[in-house]
Amino acid sequence: MGTANRARPRILFVSANETAPWGPSETNWALAARHWLDQGAEIHACVKGWKEVPGELAALEEAGCVVHRRWDEPPHDLRPVHELPWSERQSSTLEKVRPDFVLVSQGDNYEGLGWMEECQAHGVPYVAYSNSAADFEWPVDDVAERLAKGYLAARASLFVSEGNRELTERQVGGPLPNARVVRCHFKVDYAAAPPWPEADEPLRLACPARLDPVNKGHDVLFDVLSRPKWRNRPLTVSLFGSGSHERVLRALRDRLDLHSVEFAGYVTDIEAVWREHHGLVLCSRAEGLPTVIIEAMLCGRPAIVSDVAGNAELIEDGVTGFVAAGPVAACLDEALERAWQRRGEWREIGRRAAEAVRRQIPPDPIALLVDQLKELAA
Fold it and tell me: Which of 216, 305, 324, 331 is an S-S bond match for 209, by CB 3.0 to 4.6 Å?
């Protein structure tokens, strides 16, 4: 369908996300789109239409990206999330745009299946980009078989962590030889070095994560903090972020009488968070590779995380942070206890974390991603 002789490449970024106007996975493709746009490509994006227009999308559109919105309404949007949207079956964005190359962005590792199959049907080269994976969401056999074909037909299958790649291969029933691991953006300066908080007590932990206990495990954290030993220690946890479960999480906090937990809201100045907090705690059940871990380590703060997806891939347990064996209360309690017993070493652990993350994460991961996409599109 594409035209190889165009003066500049025509690239379509498809966001398969149907659940929220914006999120970290949206930021990744949008930054890549803007970077490639600034280099002279003709950039199109296909997104679900929302009454609320996210600022990042508005800025991308203003910069020259042509945005195509899908306005699916019930009962058509009651289809399984992995199937092609109803509106696309009525009027194909691929036929309208006639792109040379497509990036299919998924918030998880399966919702872009219909788009992969649409690219195959139209003979358009594409890459599949997965931002997360969950070991409690396995596709049924026929969907797994289609997913395997969709990934294998892509010029590359991109994952944000080795954990996501390995889990996806298990879930689709076989290896993906075209898989690559790419790194996400982060929202602090690469040279960030916020000063250590002035007071050592109370020990202040931050949990910067959308308020979504299904994936982020806030309930597990609350369970641990409700135990007598943690109630009696000078420890506080600040929850940064917003989300669809805020009311129920506040109710759970109040029912457990957790005076150590505060809801700090959504913030954009991440370095300011780490000027006031000694470390990160994150007990995810499903992830990609959270940028909040990268940001905490860049800022010289140790992280206490569950061993899920890419959470522990940057951390050496006991050296640059602390890893809980799983997203359950007993495991988090064990890791948090080890961290507590070594709290006098946290500044040094944070220093080692800052050095380690810079050996593993490049200064501009989006520029490197676009370089790979250009190579794959050629």
Answer: 216
